[in-house]
């Protein structure tokens, strides 16, 4: 209700009755958003046209694959592992036909010597400047590409630092994100090995092995926490990370719908780490 009243008042001050009508509508949308999760439904995103949203999604899509291609060639040539990682990424997104061709074209463009990384990132940031969660996810995707072979080469790290700098992400937070992803990568691999081991024991009708203790340290690292984190710290970090990676919110801000799977997988990793810590406490 307060949103409508304030909207009418301010609208009338600046645009008389037309302004009051517009203010009423904006106030109505604001009140409606407050009853839900304002960020989850896209906040003021609903006031932009569908074409504007589609343009941002197209820019995120093309920029993401172009920078991935550039990072993949940071060592002078694109390795077979990087090609497999890019292909797996496209498979995960369910890209087929024209969409897959666009992703491949952008990836190839990023590999070209004349590709200007700084200009591409600066242009990208201008469009997504106020959508920090998307900027962070963009960087996380690039880290995922660089880390696809299980380790981070010096050239790849230098490029990632540049991407982070151009996005306006501090060096301290870059190190935090990188450390979190490395922990996420290790934790996911360990969980997969453990699940496979349990399945093998079950098939052989043997007693299942207990989960290794060192997973607790890795699970904390997935949430960006140290080993001395309290239960309150764990809950706070979990809620913050889940809010940052909420797929519906990110799509409403400009994440291509094809890339929802990326956000979902990250949310699942965060959820898995949190559930593990709850059981371990």
UniProtKB/TrEMBL annotation:
Its main location: membrane. One of its GO terms (molecular function) is protein-folding chaperone binding. It is a single-pass type III membrane protein. SMART domains: DnaJ. Residues 29-281 are cytoplasmic. Keywords: Cell inner membrane, Cell membrane, Chaperone, Membrane, Transmembrane, Transmembrane helix. Residues 203-214 have a biased composition (Basic and acidic residues). The chain crosses the membrane at residues 6-26. The keyword Repeat does not apply. Residues 218-281 form the J domain. It is found in: Cell inner membrane. Homodimer. Regulatory DnaK co-chaperone. Direct interaction between DnaK and DjlA is needed for the induction of the wcaABCDE operon, involved in the synthesis of a colanic acid polysaccharide capsule, possibly through activation of the RcsB/RcsC phosphotransfer signaling pathway. The colanic acid capsule may help the bacterium survive conditions outside the host. NCBIfam families: PRK09430.1 (NF006948). This is Co-chaperone protein DjlA. It comes from Pseudoalteromonas caenipelagi. The lineage of its organism: Bacteria, Pseudomonadati, Pseudomonadota, Gammaproteobacteria, Alteromonadales.
């Amino acid at each position: 209700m307060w949103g409508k009243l304030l909207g009418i008042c301010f609208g009338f001050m600046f645009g008389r009755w037309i302004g009051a009508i517009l203010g009423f509508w904006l106030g109505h949308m604001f009140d409606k958003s407050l009853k839900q999760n304002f960020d989850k439904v896209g906040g003021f995103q609903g006031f932009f046209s569908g074409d504007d949203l589609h343009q941002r999604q197209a820019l995120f899509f093309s920029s993401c694959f172009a920078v991935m291609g550039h990072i993949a060639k940071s060592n002078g040539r694109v390795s077979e592992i990087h090609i497999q990682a890019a292909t797996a990424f496209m498979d995960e997104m369910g890209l087929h036909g024209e969409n897959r061709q666009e992703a491949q074209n952008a990836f190839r463009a990023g590999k070209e010597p004349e590709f200007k990384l700084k200009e591409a990132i600066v242009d990208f940031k201008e469009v997504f400047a106020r959508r920090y969660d998307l900027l962070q996810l963009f960087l996380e995707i690039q880290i995922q590409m660089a880390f696809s072979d299980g380790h981070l080469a010096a050239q790849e790290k230098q490029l990632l630092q540049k991407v982070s700098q151009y996005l306006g992400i501090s060096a301290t937070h870059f190190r935090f994100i990188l450390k979190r992803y490395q922990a996420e990568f290790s934790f996911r691999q360990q969980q997969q090995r453990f699940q496979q081991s349990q399945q093998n024991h079950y098939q052989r009708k043997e007693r299942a092995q207990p989960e290794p203790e060192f997973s607790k340290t890795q699970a904390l690292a997935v949430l960006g926490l140290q080993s001395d984190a309290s239960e309150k710290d764990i809950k706070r970090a979990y809620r913050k990370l889940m809010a940052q990676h909420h797929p519906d919110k990110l799509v409403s801000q400009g994440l291509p719908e094809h890339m929802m799977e990326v956000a979902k997988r990250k949310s699942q990793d965060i959820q898995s780490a949190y559930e593990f810590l709850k059981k371990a406490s």
